[in-house]
């Protein structure tokens, strides 16, 4: 009986000592939303865009794996940044309240 109990304790101790390693996620998202509003009577995209292009960039120079948009009908064109760190999107927001969300899926390494 004592030998059986000792063997059981040894087996249980081995199971407790082996932990499950949790890996850090391999990707993360960078997301932004732009909306067409009226400012001083003029249609204006908020937040402000430069040269009519939305730019979503990964952090720390990480490379972008892929990207997605909330509504393809609100996109005139899109292209990856030359350095591979994000995406540039030319929005096609035509009426106040139109909103476009752009998400870059970025690699952590």
Keywords:
109 residues, mainly beta, three-stranded antiparallel β-sheet, 45% strand, 7 strands
Detailed description of the structure:
This protein is mainly beta and 109 residues long. Helix content is 15%, strand content 45%. It contains one helix and seven strands; from the N terminus they run αβββββββ. The strands form two sheets. The protein has a four-stranded antiparallel β-sheet with strand order 2-1-7-4, with no helix packed on it. A hairpin with a 5-residue loop joins strand 5 and strand 6 (86-91). The longest helix is centred in the N-terminal third of the chain and has 16 residues, at 2-17. The radius of gyration is 25 Å and the shape is elongated. The model is unreliable at 4-17 (pLDDT under 50).
Q: What is the CA-atom radius of gyration, in angstroms?
A: 25 Å
Strand fraction equals 35-45%
Distance between the termini: 54 Å
Uncertain runs are: 4-17
Number of helices: 1
Return the structural class.
Answer: mainly beta
Average of pLDDT: 86
The H/E string reads HEEEEEEE
State the strand order across the main sheet: 2-1-7-4
């Amino acid at each position: 009986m004592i030998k059986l109990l000792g063997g059981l304790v040894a087996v249980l101790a081995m199971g407790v000592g082996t932990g499950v390693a949790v890996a850090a996620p391999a990707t993360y998202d960078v997301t932004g939303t732009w909306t067409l509003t009226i400012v001083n009577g003029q249609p204006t995209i908020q937040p402000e865009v430069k040269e009519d292009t939305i730019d979503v960039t990964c952090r720390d120079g990480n490379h972008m794996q892929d990207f997605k948009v909330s509504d393809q009908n609100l996109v005139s064109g899109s292209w990856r940044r030359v350095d591979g760190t994000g995406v540039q999107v030319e929005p096609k927001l035509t009426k106040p309240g139109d909103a476009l969300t752009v998400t870059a899926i970025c690699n952590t390494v």
